[in-house]
Design a protein that fits this description.
This protein folds into 2 domains: 104 residues, Immunoglobulin-like, CATH 2.60.40; 139 residues, 6 Propeller (Neuraminidase). It is 10% helix and 46% strand. The chain is built from 2 helices and 21 strands. Strands 1, 3, 5, 6, 8, 9 and 10 form a 7-stranded mixed beta sheet that branches. A 4-stranded antiparallel beta sheet has the order 14-15-16-17, with no helix packed on it. Strands 18-19-20-21 form a 4-stranded antiparallel beta sheet, with no helix packed on it.
Length: 269
């Protein structure tokens, strides 16, 4: 059993080596590669997730070399590049504050072509760990599932914070944090049993922010740095949809005002 297992490991290593071997006798092109997303000549944080990409042009194979001052990385694929997470972060850590030269090769009909290399500058500064956003299918008049999600910017894994699975058809929007602190958050839930959801230190409150003296429920928020107040706009917003396909929607704010919510006193000022 040991000999068979050892033999299989060697075969896999040989295959891996063959897959990442630099193409020989490649035709040198005078153009940069057309990749998506377009990462050419940009600065990247040292902890950013792997910058995978595809070739816009059709190809039978692709080979990429990331060459740094202190270490390099070679990756191959069919029509896209998927970079292993650990190898990518090791590459960036070893080359923080330096340029990476990226050489892209593509194969068509058995022949390789090499594009003009481009650079990625690896910044010493890291990026914030997470990005929070509302995820909703493209549309303007109706929706089904939507939610507020967070994505790790170091590996691009996505997690749900809250969605409308328990409130079918409900809309949620305008989420906001106190100075990017997830312990202090608010968002609006627009439904029959909705309201403004306020979260502070794991305590959740539902607020009814419509009064006789305001135009509408509280809308667009901004936290005071102390965390004791939230400034809101109140708006009368309507949408106008075009009959032609070249224009889609116009959003009109016919009337608006500003209010301040005092969190400690639970009142609008």
């Amino acid at each position: 059993m040991y000999k068979i297992f050892f033999f299989q490991i060697n075969i896999l290593l040989l295959l891996f080596t063959a897959c990442t071997k630099m193409p020989q006798n490649a035709e040198q092109l005078a153009e940069l590669p057309d990749i998506f997303p377009d990462y050419k000549e940009v600065d990247i944080p040292r902890n950013i997730a792997p910058l995978n990409f595809i070739m816009k042009d059709t190809c039978d194979g692709i080979y990429v070399e990331y060459e740094g001052k202190n270490t390099s990385l070679m990756i191959s694929g069919k029509d896209r590049i998927t970079i292993p997470l650990k190898k990518w972060h090791k590459l960036l850590d070893k080359n923080a504050g330096e340029n990476l030269t990226v050489s892209v090769y593509t194969k068509n009909n058995g022949s390789w072509k090499k594009y003009v290399p481009f650079n990625l500058f690896v910044c010493d500064d890291p990026i914030d760990s997470y990005l929070v956003y509302r995820l909703i299918a493209p549309g303007y008049q109706v929706w089904s599932k939507m939610g507020i999600y967070q994505r790790s910017l170091t590996d691009f894994n996505q997690e749900v914070i809250i969605d409308n699975a328990l409130f079918p058809g409900a809309c949620m929007n305008c989420h906001s944090f106190k100075q990017n602190n997830p312990d202090n958050m608010m968002f609006h839930m627009r439904s029959a049993n909705g309201g403004t959801m306020l979260i502070q230190d794991e305590v959740v409150k539902k607020l009814n922010t419509k009064t006789e003296n305001t135009l509408s429920n509280c809308t667009y928020p901004y936290w005071h740095p102390s965390g004791n107040y939230i400034a809101f706009s109140v708006n009368k917003i309507s949408q106008v949809f075009h009959a032609t396909t070249d224009k889609r929607v116009e959003v009109v704010d016919s009337e608006s005002d500003l209010v301040v919510y005092d969190i400690r006193k639970n009142e609008l000022l």
